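hey m, so remember when u said the tokens were messed up on ur end? i reran from scratch. heres the input so u can diff it against urs
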Amino acid sequence: MHKIVIVGASGHGKVIADIALLNGYDEVLFLDDNPAVKIVGEYVVVGSSSEVDSFIDDGYDFIVAIGNAAIRERIQNNLLAKCAKVVTLIHPSASVAYDVEIGVGAVVMAGAVINSGSVIGSGCIVNTCSSVDHDCVVGDFSHVSVGAHTAGTVHMGDRCWLGIGAVISNNINVCDDVMIGAGAVVVKDISETGVYVGVPARKVK
């Protein structure tokens, strides 16, 4: 039996559950650290992330479905330290070039495109109908949001967030821990951590 535990019971988790089913999983369970969350969609929340050991022993795969990059990183690293099998999930409708490298714990959602020569880090989210063009690097635990796009040869650091519909022009470098707001257009390198919005994108905090 092909079975998986998803850590994080939210709408994002429901989407990942659908991708898991499309990848042949027979059983999908949820863990969540909010005791008030008992159910997500058709799925029952069976415990918290502190209870992973029994599922590791029972041979479950794992993936973390939490939007906050720092929390996602902490939980995934804790799972790996316990020798849990953290998996990568790719929606069947995504287009991923043959030579793309995708790290452990990443998820690539429906309609996403990742072109040749790109590297997607551990724990990344490449969300619905987004695109990462050729020879890009998306750092660990970063998120390319719904309908967001990077042109070719972009380097995004770790724990970055490219907001809904945002765009990074070609040959741009973005440092770690940068949040780029919805609809923003990045046309020059970003070398300082912070929040950037607008067209062209500018730092606001």
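this time it looks ok to me. The chain has two domains: 3-87, 90-198. if urs says something different then somethings off w ur setup not the seq
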